[in-house]
Write a structure and sequence with these properties.
The protein is α/β, with parallel strands linked by helices. The protein folds into two domains: about 190 residues, no CATH class; about 150 residues, Rossmann fold, CATH 3.40.50. Helix content is about 30%, strand content about 20%. About 40% of the residues are buried.
């Protein structure tokens, strides 16, 4: 799992504006059954305000107590919560999760130029991949728990032991998962965590039923762009949670928008000729996911009208778009669409692509 920063940003921005330090909690390692996985993040303020979760809400009260001490002293803490046996009841937490969670809390504030949040927030805003390293276990006084290893572009001080090639290599190769890196010969342990970049979704059609799609996607921290050729629909005021709303002739889509910046596109203009132009443009792109709203008969008519271009598109086309969750309201349809997109961007099991045409043999 990678770090999802979006839920933390509002609290970070408020605290930074007020000059008040926060404690950043990072789930470093787990064993057994746990609600969250390595890479989960949480921000905790001195007065108890928080953003994000490291558990299902069971540990957060205890973490707040530790967070206050971290904020006051600046000394990071490594914590272990073991809920596999009777110790859980002794602690009084009563979680019953049957798992182990290793968590590190470190101070982010004016004292350390808000690192590593400052670096992560800048990368998030620029949609740039990055990673950070945090010392989670050490017997060396000059390299305490909480010491940071950041990429060179972060312009942040790094301990000498964290500036070598093995650490740089660990950061560079952490694109897919958060984990404790194995560094040969090191007498300390480094947790390496990549930043999770929010999926960028393109909705081609900004009718009334696009609004709940945008709202659900925004709730997940995704970045959604909408395109429509109708001025009454392509109005930014209608979609305050969208990244951008673009008025564009469907025939000019590829010259107006860089399709390669998106992870998925959903065609939902409710206009046959317009949808055909959108699909023609998407057929010539490398977008790995293309969703199409409407029944199978409409899909087959559009694919037939596409001619030879349909062959390459069919492998990526999800139509009718959305998981079969039931319900026919715009909100139900939006939930089905976002659920299928969620499964796709998180590489979950299941294949909802359009089946290939039947072949006649003999």
């Amino acid at each position: 799992m990678e770090a999802s920063l979006a839920p933390l940003l509002p609290l970070y921005e408020r605290a930074r504006a007020r000059g008040r330090a926060l404690a950043l909690g990072m789930l470093v390692d787990v064993a057994g059954s746990t609600y969250r996985k390595p890479g989960a993040l949480m921000l905790i303020g001195a007065e108890g305000e928080s953003a994000g979760l490291l558990s299902g809400g069971c540990l957060e009260g205890d973490l707040s107590e530790h967070a206050r001490a971290v904020i006051d002293t600046g000394t990071a803490r490594a914590l272990r919560y073991d809920t596999r046996g009777p110790d859980d009841l002794v602690w009084g937490l009563g979680l019953g999760c049957e798992g182990v969670m290793d968590i590190v809390l470190l101070r982010c504030g004016p004292q350390n130029d808000w690192q590593p949040l400052k670096h992560l927030a800048a990368a998030h805003a620029g949609n740039r991949r990055t990673a950070l390293g945090v010392v989670v276990e050490s017997q060396r006084a000059e390299l305490p728990v909480g010491s940071l290893a950041l990429p060179a572009e972060a312009n942040a001080p790094t301990a000498a032991a964290l500036a070598g090639e093995p650490v740089r290599a660990a950061l560079a190769h952490s694109a897919t998962s958060a984990q404790v890196a194995r560094l040969a010969g090191a007498d300390w342990k480094l947790f390496v965590m990549p930043l999770w970049l929010a999926p960028r979704i393109l909705l081609l059609g900004a009718g009334p039923d696009a609004l709940p799609v945008v709202e659900l996607a925004a709730r997940l921290g995704w970045k959604v762009s909408l395109v429509d050729h109708r001025p009454a629909y392509a109005a930014a005021a209608r979609f305050p949670l969208a990244e951008q709303v673009i008025l564009c002739d469907p025939a000019l889509l590829t010259s107006s928008i860089e399709l390669g910046q998106f992870d998925a596109a959903v065609v939902m203009s409710h206009h046959l000729a317009t949808d055909l132009q959108y699909l023609r443009a998407l057929a010539g792109s490398a977008l790995p996911y293309v969703g199409l709203l409407g029944p199978a008969a409409r899909r087959e008519r559009l694919l037939s009208d596409l001619g030879g271009a349909a062959a390459g598109l069919r492998e990526r086309l999800h139509a009718p778009v959305g998981l079969p969750l039931g319900g026919r309201s715009p909100e139900s349809v939006a939930l089905a669409i976002v659920a299928e997109l969620h499964a796709f961007v998180h590489h979950a099991a299941g294949d909802t692509r359009v089946p290939a045409p039947a072949r006649v043999v003999g």
